[in-house]
Design a protein that fits this description.
The complex is a heterodimer of chains A (550) and B (293). In chain A, 57% of the residues lie in helices and 7% in strands. By secondary structure, chain A is mainly alpha-helical. Chain B has 293 residues and is mainly α. Chain B has one domain (3-278): Orthogonal Bundle (ABC transporter involved in vitamin B12 uptake, BtuC), CATH 1.10.3470. Helix content of chain B is 72%, strand content 3%. Chain B is globular and about 55 Å long. Classes of the chains: A mainly alpha (550), B mainly alpha (293). Chains A and B meet through α5, α6, α11 and α13 of A and α3, α4, α9 and α11 of B.
Amino acid sequence: MTTQKSDYTWINPLAAWGTATGNQSAPSVEVPDIRENWDKATGYKVPTYKVGRLKHYIIWPNHGEKLWTRWRWWPTRRNMLHVTGIYNRKTAIAEKKILDRRPVYWLLCMAFLAIAPLLFPSNMQNTLLTAGTIFGIFAAINVCWTLIIGTASIFSLASYAVVGTAGFLTSWLSITYGVPWYVLPVIGSVVGLVFGLAIALPALRLDGFYYALLTLGLNELCRVFFTTSREFGSASGGLYGADSFISEAWDPMVQSHVGYYTSLLLLLAALSLFRLINGKRLGRILRMAPEKREAFAAACGVDYKRARIVIFLITSVALGFIGGFYAAQYRGVAFSIFSFDTVLLGLAMLAIGGIGKAEGAVLGTLVVVFLDKVLLDWGPMRHFMIGALMLAAVLFLNNGYFGIKRQFNAWREKKRGEWRSARTEKGGEALPEEATEIDDKDQLYFRRFDKIQRDYLKTLITPEIIEEHRRQPLGQHSEALERVLLYFRRTKMEDKYALHRAGPEGPYKIIAFSGQRGVSPRLVDDREYATVDEGYHAVFMRRVHDLMES
Amino acid sequence: MDIFFVLTNAITVACIYGLIAIAVSITWSSLGLINLAYGFVFTFAGYGAWLVAQHINDHPALIAAAGIAMGAAAGVLVCLVVFIPLHDKPNFTTRGMIATLAISLIGSQSFLMFFGPRPKSLPELFGFWTLDLFGVRLTSDKIGIVVCSALMLFLVVRWMRGSRRGLEIRAMMMNPHAASIVGIGIRSTGIYVMAVTGAMGGLASVLLSQTYYIAPFNGLTPLIKGVSIALCGGLGSVQGAVIAAILLGLVEALTNEFLGGQYVLMTQFLFIIAVLVVRPRGISGLLDKAREQ
């Protein structure tokens, strides 16, 4: 503010021609470079960070002709991948990018699971194959369970009870009546349907957590019933001896491999069921009716209750099928399928991966089964670890591992907004909230510019230029005074000062325009000025006062 | 089998499970948290009381006090780990439920690691004496259990009706948002609620250990029974839970008498399902949305 020299004297350029009457020279202030001031005023004083939002898509080469010849699911016109064709902005070369890469990842993961037995270390081969078999079956169960909890939003905890009941009944039939293995999944499906019908009845009436607690009780009921009943044998910890597609005459390694690949096939079947239900009409209907917006969906004509029950029944059939398959795979079922810990581990699998997503169910199952079945020598520490993982996933993640991306993006948006508002400076400018309300954005820029200019002009108001103006209000002035006067002259008509000549020779009074046509100006005060120059100077002083006040 | 004997048994057990049911009920209605970690609270209090009995003194009052204190401590622990970090996050109800389940998983595994799988037993709290009431022989532990749980329930209800904190909890039950607007701290109320309900769970644990043992996984049955009673009576209603506890006790006694012990769970669940199909929010639960969460 104090860059001007006090002994600066301005020489009127008109003095050379003799036209400068009265102000050949005047003591004034040197004007600082306005560009420096501009840079200083418009620069951010708060540190800013570069936070990008680039999507790092892999760009593939393309050919304009090939853009429309895509692989399609026969006989529909659906594409295999969601690909978009683009032209490079710089080189104008045709390119393409895959917008949804999940099918590629699924394919890679499945291919990895298919060749995984070749990669297992030989000393762990047996453990890993057993764990892999369990992983396949449990992942299939969890994918079906995801359909119930996620797609149908029925918080049922009885999925393992359905599987277990189907498994026990089919094993018992196979042992007692010699039913062959290939019928077991079919009978299991029927059992699942009956069980599903029985527990769908309360689901129609109860909502949310009442149903969850009820199914938790049902699970316990099944456990007590099967462990205490005479037919299902309580001595050996389970019911064994059913017919199986894995012949005991085979080499043990062959048996393990057959078990692994059949359970992998079961997982594939469950995933296709998930895709068929979640990605098609039923799933879309229910995506319209999320929790707490059912009334809206119903008003739009969506029969969400029916859709939920249909999904529940289809999934119960699938769970029954898995139960029968389980019995045919392991020649029976253990009571542990009904135990509270199994439900807990199942919930842990869903919670770790993320409820409502097939990939979440599969990943969660992989993690939990690995901890539970492969790291056997950790003892009770394994379940402790699983519980800790589950707790951490629930405490820190909104929707498990596969919800991290969305949660992180939301968090970053929030932080970005906070930083933006922290950088905003106030005073004459619009606040961010106000700015969004103003339609004419020119107004915002004008207010910003005006503030910068006023701050700058305040530095020029010195006793020297006031004295200069008093000596001669009109005519050529020094640069500092000239800049100040130009700003004053340009102000809007509303409340602009003017001189009113009260008589033919004076005196003069200061008035202020109303700024509205037809509304007369108001008298600012009663003070009278004898000459017009005194009046000009009084108006100038008033404006200076207003400028310094603003 | 004598019907009165079965009946007194059923009432005794119903008293204990009723305590847990009321704890579940109060927690749900005031905090919106479905606390399935009462199994953990139960076992924690049982082991705490056992440690006191082993290492300090086995005076009955001291053991009961230790059980109640440890239960309250476990309740506060659950509150600090689950309720306070999660209560303002999206999907609170689901995540809270899963988190309490995770705590019960971690808890039972830790008990298994520290105390081993062998069950522990607490000394008799009420001595050995019997009372002949109208021709029905009542043993000391039954009378003690009924009197203790009734006393605990009376004190809790009295506290909730008469104290400043109780007023806060009841305000939270009516409308949590309005309660927080008028200056009732959600977190501090959460700690009171969980401490009180945890104390109830702790007392239930000490009382039940008169009949059963304390083992790492023994919290499950009381939890399931308590939750069923709370469901049947209507979450959020103390008198509903009392009615449901008595009704389910009756069902248990009648089933024992006429059908046989192995059908008890079945008839109980059929009864609960029947009640819930007729009244989806339990016997004395409100039919409309009881809690907006």
